[in-house]
Amino acid sequence: MNYTNTLEYAKMMDEKDSLKSYRNKFYIPIVHGKECIYLTGNSLGLQPKTTQDAVMDELEDWANYGVEGHLHARNPWYSYHELFPELLTDIVGAKAEEIVVMNQLTVNLQLLLTTFYRPHGKRNKIICEAKAFPSDQYALASHVLTRGLNPEACIIEVHPREGSQVIAHEDIVTAIQQHGDETALVLFGGVNYYTGQVFNMKDIVRVSHTVGALCGFDLAHAAGNIELELHDWQVDFACWCTYKYLNSGPGSVGGVFIHEKHIHNASLPRLAGWWGHNKERRFKMEKTFDPIPTAEGWQLSNAPVLSMAAHKAALEVFREARFTDLIEKSKLLTGYLFHVLKDINHHFPEPVMDLLTPEDAHGCQVSIVMKKDGKRVFDRLIKESVIADWREPDVIRVAPVPLYNTFEDVYRFGTIILQTLKDSDN
Ligand SMILES: *Cc1c(COP(=O)(O)O)cnc(C)c1O
User: Which atom belonging to ligand 1 lies closest to the Cα atom of 193?
Assistant: First the structure.
């Protein structure tokens, strides 16, 4: 791409953008009296304008029907969760029966580890990324502990090499192979939350399976952000939250993938609940658990309809926009962000920032190490109505997303950084 770091160019790109009308389908927060430049869709996606009506419909049906809403609401609550798999197949690259929407992310990770971390004999190790999101670290350690094992011995973290922040794929492969017959499970993020690095999931699964280990992913920063082919890659299981790139509201309901090859296996141990039980017989209140032979067989509780209503409204926007088109725009938009940031470096004798995110393995998010005046730049961004994410001591994370961000957002973000650093030079 021949990008140019000018306002005219950014405006021209926005004009040409076939998805430009989607921005208007979201509420853009007002900061200091004007529409902000919202660059934290990786943390909490913005609210679609259709969400309020979707939630209000359920509140109205509850008011009008009471318990009868389970069967007579416009979207009957009894089967509400069944609306989701079809809406998610493109986004995660899975068959409908491999997907279920339930609970929240960390809960789902715990449930999946109950089924898929099955240490036996010396095959008791879990291989994961160093500095995984803390909730994931706690979840892994808690499983090792509840099996009577020692996390120090059983959890093998793959670290970045000296002087690097990202993890080399070869090092992941080597770690899995080195611990081959001791590895029970390989668990990675799809996209690292801090660096924005996209892992080579397809190959991580392949290598895991060659040593006889299972392989799962936490897709919190991947779902709705990058292309996924969970079924074809033979991923054993995955889970994600829906409030980041999937715009489904704070703490909203989570998503789960379980590969087809596992969903029929009623003997897989799991933490069971009535909502995972044979639907025809659920209300017979029988003693013996008979799991539904799809990912739904892992459900525990009946559908949390209010948060699901927000999720449904958000996924309908994705479906209308078409996920492949969103990915195409995303690549252009984040490519432009890389261009703008590198161009800023060229304005100074020494680079003023390092980019943590690998240019050959990224989604929407770019993590920037400010080599000087980081906090000053960040404070200026806030003053200029930019919402970005600051991590001590010197990292700014931003994620222009294709549904509601523009090339002009990216251009203006760059200009504020450049101006602030130039001002502090004088
Ligand atoms: C956002 C995020 C979480 C948050 O977990 P919740 O259970 O939704 O609070 C967990 N893990 C990762 C990798 C995340 O990015």
Answer: 15
